[in-house]
């Protein structure tokens, strides 16, 4: 069964940091690019960051460039999203994705 399971969300103050993890199973992880999306209340889901299968190429949305880092460990079948200097507008449910497979999401709330 193809599955993506996110973790690491929570409540953090502005300027703080969180690291999200997404563990994959049921497919050949090292052969697939991975993406992190987010969806804030009342807004469309947006692509935050992506990484190719080897981890050698990444993409970031302008809104997170310089603050977020996507990485992966192909031995652990895990993709990460390190989020630093968090802002109120980063509050959203964050989803891990590959092809047509989505995780259940993890809530990130940035609030003072």
Average pLDDT score: 97
Largest sheet: 7 strands, mixed
Based on DSSP secondary structure assignment, what is the total number of beta strands?
A: 11
Q: Report the β-strand fraction as a percent range.
A: over 45%
Give the SSE string: EEEEEEEEEEE
User: Radius of gyration, Cα only, in angstroms?
Assistant: 13 Å
Structural class: mainly beta
Q: Indicate the overall shape.
A: globular
* Unreliable spans: none
The count of helical stretches stands at: 0
Distance between the termini: 40 Å
Helix content: under 10%
Multimeric status of the protein? single chain
What would a concise description of this structure say?
The protein has 112 residues and is mostly beta strands. It contains no helices and eleven strands.
How would you describe this structure to a colleague?
The protein has strands at residues 3-7, 10-12, 18-25, 34-39, 46-51, 58-60, 68-73, 78-83, 92-98, 101-102, 106-110. It has 112 residues and is an all-beta fold. Strands 2, 4, 5, 6, 9, 10 and 11 form a seven-stranded mixed sheet that branches. It is globular.
Features:
globular, mainly beta, four-stranded antiparallel beta sheet, seven-stranded mixed beta sheet, 112 residues
